[in-house]
Structure formats: C-alpha cells, structure tokens
Amino acid sequence: xxxxxxxxxxxxxxxxxxxxxxxxxxxxxxxxxxxxxxxxxxxxxxxxxxxxxxxxxxxxxxxxxxxxxxxxxxxxxxxxxxxxxxxxxxxxxxxxxxxxxxxxxxxxxxxxxxxxxxxxxxxxxxxxxxxxxxxxxxxxxxxxxxxxxxxxxxxxxxxxxxxxxxxxxxxxxxxxxxx
Length: 179
Known about the structure:
Elements: H1 2-20, H2 23-36, H3 42-57, H4 61-77, H5 84-100, H6 104-119, H7 127-143, H8 147-160, H9 167-177
C-alpha cells in the first residue's frame, strides 16, 4: 500500500510541476509515479495520459505516442471499470499527433477507435461527438483525395444517428469546409 501512496504523491507533484510549466520535473515525477504503480488502474492510465501531454508540449512526439499507447493498454485491461473518457482523450491525442506528422491513415484508425467507444455509450448526448469524429475522418479522407470514403463516413454516421443527409449535401458541405 505504501508504494501506491508514493505513486499518488509523485503523481500529485508531477501535476503541480506541470501546471507550473516545469515540464522536465513533471515528466520525471510522472515516470517515477508510473514505476511505483504495481497494478493497472485508472490512476495509472491517467498518469500515462498526463505524461503523454507533457511529452507533447516538449515536442517529444515518440515518447508522447508511447505514453498514450500505454495509457490505452492500461485502460483496455481494466475489468469492471469504465475508463471511457480517458481512452477517448488518448485516441484524440494520438490522432492529432498523427495528423501533425501527416500520417493520416494512422489518425483515421484512432478516430475510428474513438467512434467505436462512443458508440458503446448509451447516451443521446454523444451524437455531436460522433459527428465530430466523422467530420475529422472525412476531412482526412479528403486530404488524401478519397472523396468517396469521406462521403461514405458521413452517410454511415448520419444513418447511425437517424439523420438525413443526401450525398449531394455532404459533398457540398465537404467542399465548403475544406476549400
């Protein structure tokens, strides 16, 4: 139990350094906290996610990707817990990193994973989130000159959400958004 307490203390110190803008210290304490956790937990997942955020600020993209993937691995391994928002945040961050590196196919995979998680939530308030994911995927398809795929994701999402959106309107919408 004392290791868990020490992990929580290190995490709190890391968060304080992070808020103060001292990213090197924050990163060190997040790594220390991660090393002290002995079992997968939501706290460990959050620690990895926050480490990813610090690495991202430091432009250490490889380390950020590694931290986010570790957070996802921990989140997916948890039984009985629902780390949904943490997983969504990690997939979003990974997608944005992939976009910044023009690795659009990897970003699309992350957005689809995000949509898969959102689709499991039994809440009508997620409609906007699903549409936003579809919009991001469509935008990436369009960047790759895959307009048919862009239209297809919009059509699929609209059907899933019981919205009406003829293909012609979607094509016009895409052209206006990304002209």
